[in-house]
Amino acid sequence: xxxxxxxxxxxxxxxxxxxxxxxxxxxxxxxxxxxxxxxxxxxxxxxxxxxxxxxxxxxxxxxxxxxxxxxxxxxxxxxxxxxxxxxxxxxxxxxxxxxxxxxxxxxxxxxxxxxxxxxxxxxxxxxxxxxxxxxxxxxxxxxxxxxxxxxxxxxxxxxxxxxxxxxxxxxxxxxxxxxxxxxxxxxxxxxxxxxxxxxxxxxxxxxxxxxxxxxxxxxxxxxxxxxxxxxxxxxxxxxxxxxxxxxxxxxxxxxxxxxxxxxxxxxxxxxxxxxxxxxxxxxxxxxxxxxxxxxxxxxxxxxxxxx
Amino acid sequence: xxxxxxxxxxxxxxxxxxxxxxxxxxxxxxxxxxxxxxxxxxxxxxxxxxxxxxxxxxxxxxxxxxxxxxxxxxxxxxxxxxxxxxxxxxxxxxxxxxxxxxxxxxxxxxxxxxxxxxxxxxxxxxxxxxxxxxxxxxxxxxxxxxxxxxxxxxxxxxxxxxxxxxxxxxxxxxxxxxxxxxxxxxxxxxxxxxxxxxxxxxxxxxxxxxxxxxxxxxxxxxxxxxxxxxxxxxxxxxxxxxxxxxxxxxxxxxxxxxxxxxxxxxxxxxxxxxxxxxxxxxxxxxxxxxxxxxxxxxxxxxxxxxxxxxxxxxxxxxxxxxxxxx
Lengths: 307, 326
Ligand SMILES: Nc1ncnc2c1ncn2[C@@H]1O[C@H](COP(=O)(O)OP(=O)(O)OP(=O)(O)O)[C@@H](O)[C@H]1O
Ligand SMILES: [Mg+2]
Prior knowledge:
The complex is a heterodimer.
Chain A: H1 2-29, H2 33-37, H3 44-54, H4 60-72, H5 87-122, H6 127-141, H7 144-158, H8 170-200, H9 203-211, H10 215-253, H11 259-268, H12 272-300
Chain B: E1 4-17, E2 20-33, E3 37-41, H1 48-56, E4 63-72, E5 75-76, H2 83-90, E6 95-98, H3 102-105, H4 112-123, H5 128-141, H6 147-152, H7 160-172, E7 178-182, H8 190-207, E8 210-215, H9 218-224, E9 227-232, E10 235-241, H10 242-247, H11 252-259, H12 299-303, E11 309-312, E12 315-317
Parallel strand pairs in B: 3-8, 3-9, 6-7, 7-8
Antiparallel strand pairs in B: 1-2, 1-4, 4-5, 9-10, 10-12, 11-12
Helix pairs in contact in B: 4-5, 5-7, 7-8
Bound molecules: adenosine-5'-triphosphate (ATP) and magnesium ion.
């Protein structure tokens, strides 16, 4: 088990390093960073002077050495858009807000989808099942921004129960978290449902019933543990998907000052250094989630090979 | 009659499917005495498994018991206010079951030990330690080598024969009085089949179990059972002591079935298979279900259903033209 964990973490580190190399190459080798630093109408002399000042005239390999050294010191460079602020500082301030949103949204999604999918699976084709499936299909087929706008118009503008936008207390979190959760609830419910139906039709469930195991235990212990692998796969995918960009839409709709919103801003302001830090941090997050999911697989299902 | 454990009385099971109502079991009655091994034979789709599910109260949606009764020691498990609670208490405890497919019958993500102890902990209220002791004892009882190691293993680490032994051990956990074995050897290799049947026979003897052995292989029944019930198209065709039915089968279907079974004690000239296919249970024939395939079929067979009738002591047959010894 521990060798498995160490191996997975090692593999994750390799991916992170690869991501760092790609980011470096994209920002230094395939583009000229000075293009971003100086206004378009800058003269050739100004460009060269600036290039020398920033060290971009040196061989690429030397630059890479510096880059790695900086990173290892935790120096991710300075923002162009907000001169004087380090990019990691901006990320450090916005990331927790995004994590908060993703955590709230995904917890909500999983907390809703598990019981919904399990209830639907109790009697496939029954009234309750049909209602839940229809609801899920509606949820999963609505684009995220649309869900966001809908919630905003109904609960914030019309009913005025909740704030329209911005970052604040718990009440500010509700609508964006819901907007992030609802399409995910749809997808997750469908997967929980179909995985549970498969498991409930399996022979070992029949045997468990013949042993006299109560239905509740069969549901929550036997079938659910087996359905878990599929549920975990999709949950992991939902979380990485949210982290790797899909929260942007929700952050934009609700003006939630998170990581995604700043990524958009960095693109608009041509802040290539902020953007590379954001990409790198997002890569680390995605890798971390995947490593955790892989370890959880192993915990719930002994059949998964230790590789 | 005094020691009749199980009584199936006029049992009718129907499945309400989109294709129509499947008449899976129609008017089936038989009993099992203490210490007795009864065989239930019939070809695929004749309703053997559904009958056993009805006994266990496990008929699956969209099916249900639409008429008749199942009585355990005289108490109904189908009707009455306590029936639902009774069947839950009895299932896996006094009556237990072994299934056809050992490869898929165990939950792959729990250890053998955890699945074995679940039964005694639930029904007998054993502590963790007691249940573990009992599980090791059971693994030993079904001739598993190295019980301690098996206890910690996952089903994936065992062969089919070993898994079937685990399942038998599981079924025996609470010292049941009746064991229902639904084609327990069909999925196994021939040599393993023989071992499992031998084990069942030994256990039956040692523990004083009653056994309902479901199979489509008359050869299996011949070696192990006291009585046999032959099922066809959801109905009983013939019931009788094993030797009598083998010597002088009276129902044309039993004869056909016997002719299509290779026998070790006789060098039969050739194996005869029964022509035709079993009836469609969505729209079963109004007459004898076997009429369409029967050599002795008459007009009466097609228009009128023969009821199970006693032809001599202990022998019942549902046929208008039974073969008789004379
Ligand atoms: N869940 C179900 N839904 C609809 N029909 C069913 C269901 N289970 C069984 N049946 C029908 O009931 C009939 C009897 O099936 P059963 O499984 O009892 O046959 P069997 O004698 O056990 O055959 P086999 O030797 O193949 O196990 C079949 O026609 C089958 O189609
Ligand atoms: Mg069957």
